[in-house]
Amino acid sequence: MPGGKFETISRQGVHTLKISKIEISEGDVYEISVGGLEGSCVVTVLEAEKRPVMNWKPKKIEMENGKPETITIPYSVKGGRNKPKAKLLRDGVPVDLEKMKDLVEVIVHDDVVEIKFKDPKKEDAGKWALELSNSGGTALAPFEIGVKDKPKTPKGPLETKNITSKGCDLKWEAPDVDDSSPVQGYIIEMQEGDGKWTKIGETKQTEFKVKNLKEHGQYKFRVKAVNDVGQSEPLTSDTIIAKDPY
């Protein structure tokens, strides 16, 4: 009967049984008899594919500049037939993964999605999201990326003041501020003549008092900023001679 639960349709010698809004419990052997012809089949009813569900809470993920990082997002799909399709969004706009394959890759496994940032940079910091979709709908997993880096070189010049035969004072300026990885202190190194650079101290200030120099010795000094990622490139002073001013 047209519009009913069961409907037979005959077109060009082909007879079809249409079952509307079938339930999982209605899987069975169905028989049809039309115009003296009979047929039967086993109907198995599977659960309809639901939209993906991601076990994820929005979070900020800290990365280090140039250090590969993988984000793993678990997901599940009830009644799923195939893996869902994945899109990576940045500020709500889909990313062209083919063009960015050297920088980021999205891999959909059976129960997790891996987002591999191969060479994160400071400019990658910001709001991102993974979108999974199938015939049942769409799910979104937002996240924010912060990219830490080594500090910039302290600002110069590296001044050498109050030079005597026994020591001198060093002074410099802090590098530009980076809120994601602030400077924790400074390392001071010294070179005597053409010798090796050796560490002579640490400080949290932008000045340092050098002691125990050799009279008439030639010295250079350099300062490196330090944060939780590493050390900056050094700021180096001019050469001085350790001698009294009179």
From TrEMBL:
It comes from Elaeophora elaphi. The keyword Repressor does not apply. It comes from the Eukaryota. The keyword Translocase does not apply. SMART domains: FN3. Keywords: Immunoglobulin domain. Residues 154-245 form the Fibronectin type-III domain. Transmembrane segments: none annotated. It holds the Pfam family fn3. This is Fibronectin type-III domain-containing protein. InterPro entries: FN3_dom, FN3_sf, Ig-like_dom_sf, Ig-like_fold. Signal peptide: none annotated.
